[in-house]
Amino acid sequence: MTVVRGRRTPQPGPSAADAPPPASAASSGAAEEREEPEEPPEPAPGPVHPEPATELPLAERLDALLGDPEDGTGPLGYAAAARRDTAEEFPAAACAALDRIGVQHYYVPARYGGALTGLPQLLEVVRTLARRDLTSAVAHGKTFLGAVCVWVAEENAGTARLADLVRAGELVSLGLTERAHGSDLMAGEVVAEAVPEGYRITGEKWLINNATRGRLVCLLARTAPEGGPRGFSLLLVDKARLPHGTWRPLPKVPTLGIRGADISGIAFDAAPVGRDGLIGREGEGPETVLKALQITRSLCTGLSLGAADHGLRLAYGFAAGRELYGRRMLDLPLVRRTLAECYADLLAAEALSLVAARSIHTLPEELSVTSAVAKYLVPTTVDRILLRLRGVLGARAFLSDHHAHGRFQKLERDHRIVGIFDGNTMVNLYALTAQFRTLARGFAAPAGRGAAGHREREAATFSPDLPLPRLRPDRLSLLARHGSTLAASLPGSTSVLVRAAADDVRLVPAARAARTLTAACRGLHTRMGAARLLPGGAPVESFDLARGYSACLAAACALGLWRYGRDGGNGGGGEGRTAPSPLWLHAVLDRLSSGLEEAVPGSTGPLPRPRGVEEEAREPLYERLLERMAAQYAAGELFSLLTCRTAEGPPC
Hints:
The chain is of the alpha+beta class. It has helices at 58-66, 78-87, 92-100, 119-132, 134-153, 159-167, 285-321, 333-362, 367-393, 407-415, 425-433, 436-444, 450-462, 485-501, 508-530, 540-564, 583-599, 611-634, and strands spanning 2-4, 7-9, 172-175, 191-195, 198-209, 216-222, 232-238, 247-250, 263-274, 278-279, 323-324, 327-328. A four-stranded mixed β-sheet has the order 3-6-7-10. The chain has a four-stranded antiparallel β-sheet with strand order 4-5-9-8, with no helix packed on it. A two-stranded antiparallel ribbon has the order 1-2. Helix 8 (333-362) packs across helix 16 and helix 12 crosses helix 15. The relative contact order is 0.10.
């Protein structure tokens, strides 16, 4: 249901009955065994468009089209997701419904005929789908992961055809990992042998999402016998064009979470692929993959944001309606503090995610750092949020029935996989440790195009309402050679906040927290600059420094959003959609300061500390923050820095 002037009006979602079958429904049947090439099917209906008289956020328009998730009849509701999870069933009806309204058009850049004009759009789409059902979001959204290497390589021969296939609803998978080698891509044994007409592929890829159901596979294969960084290439394989017997699907792998997803594999036996299947140039496969993963890691955070909103909404609703020890559970101090801190953690994760998505356009040369921080910190934070909310829900967090369709236990299981997608926690932290010296130099002496150019880049990155430059894949880099503009903005944003606090007493607590974080960040960069890699990799303490650095960069993102938003010290960009109150900023900085201190003890001040005094000072902050959260819940809005109504609307 959508909210209209404070009322709930019926808004049915797409029906499974009148939706066309998925374009990829011929998964392991006869359609995949056709030997004759087939023309790309007609594109599915166009993408979600704004209402004629109202420019609503994309997430709000999409959520309204998907219908009230509390309605038990639609394929994208909570009840349907629970039934599919119990049966470990692929969300075919849900994917068909998403195809019907044109969600897949946002997996194709506008320059190739799609609807994607900015990566923040895709973050909104992923978050909206994940809030309903992570399994459906992963099953449908993984097509972007499969296709993004082609967009990064900026191919011209096969790009238009791939764009047509994606818009028509065909699934695309990304074949990187192998059973014996995991994330060690340079050890891959799948071989693409050069022959006069192209390549012949032999070997197995395993733990591949949509490997069986997907028609196309973007495949990393060894093209030089000796391997090495220039010994692997990317090939786009169309299973519909392969001769019978040259490939076979590997069995679906049972998983703890996202049970219905097609996590399987594919085996090739001298499968022929023409020269037109080569993505980019031969030997550029690993570099293209690593650059593409910088984009997808930045967008995976949408899965976590949707999961956090779903879990927090469940826990708040339960606490508000449950009586315990003679009073409402929501009135218990520990429950109130837990909910408020989890809400603040969600806002911190959102601030980082929003800026990371914009920086794909504005700071692509630094994405190796930004994406690693986002992919480490946001899923880890949301895992902790769900763990704490489990304590609020008690036994109902574990039940697969009896309460809210068993949604929480499914949600918690499903979300555990997000930290593994596109590089796990250790991979992302190691990517930061490898750049410590560059990051330290960049923080001490920020590189830029002069003061005016530096402010312009910051404003374009931090302001949610300014137009974005077009995506420039050619500017993606495997290393941030001049450090991080985002981290380097922290001292300047803190100075702006301190000056603003002199005229607005509401900003004084946030300014105090910002000064503490800035001082800690300076000390952290000094230690990072002195760290050295060992022959076997980074020492253990470097990983702690990387965790602390991630909290600092997230703080810089929150301060940047405040500074360049509607109420910020630079006047913002006009009528922005960021939260007008500084309350969220104080809470977010406080939570990130706690995270930094946990990672690097003593970094935010001398130890030991009079904890009781600190906690007493925080109590009013989180009480007021809980009021803001309660207001969003009562209004049927997303738990967010931005105003966005949900399809279910206010609680009945």
